[in-house]
Design a protein that fits this description.
Elements lengths: L7 H17 L3 H6 L6 E8 L9 E9 L4 E10 L5 E10 L12 H7 L2
Antiparallel strand pairs: 1-4, 2-3, 3-4
Length: 115
């Protein structure tokens, strides 16, 4: 159909999430080493435009608490050269301990996102 496969948007959301964490000062692997898991519990995508193989895309991701024991990552995907929208959306992740019990995001994690 001349555009990306629809599930690819969720892959891009994951890239945005991973890089946001890394740029905040911690890798996803390090969060897990600290005993915190972030399982996906909800995803929403608005498909707004086309992107083809080898197009350069800009992924902008932000995060905020979403309830007592979850985080919402908002993602905006645009063409790097024109700024034209490709997809917007969000994922919500429960914050759990290593056995899956919901927990509040630790203070150190929230402080990372507020910097």
């Amino acid at each position: 159909m001349g555009t990306f496969y629809n599930a690819r948007a969720l892959d891009w959301f994951e890239v945005g999430r991973t890089e946001l964490l890394r740029n905040s000062g911690i890798s996803y692997a390090e969060i897990e080493k600290q005993g915190i898991m972030l399982p996906l519990v909800q995803a929403h995508v608005n498909f707004m435009g086309r992107a083809r193989y080898d197009d350069k895309l800009l992924i902008v991701t932000t995060v905020k608490p979403d309830g007592k024991a979850s985080l919402r990552f908002d993602c905006h995907i645009r063409h790097e050269d024109t700024g034209k929208a490709v997809a917007d959306g969000y994922t919500v992740h429960a914050v759990t301990d290593t056995v899956g019990k919901p927990t509040r995001p630790p203070k150190w994690m929230l402080e990372l996102f507020n910097n």
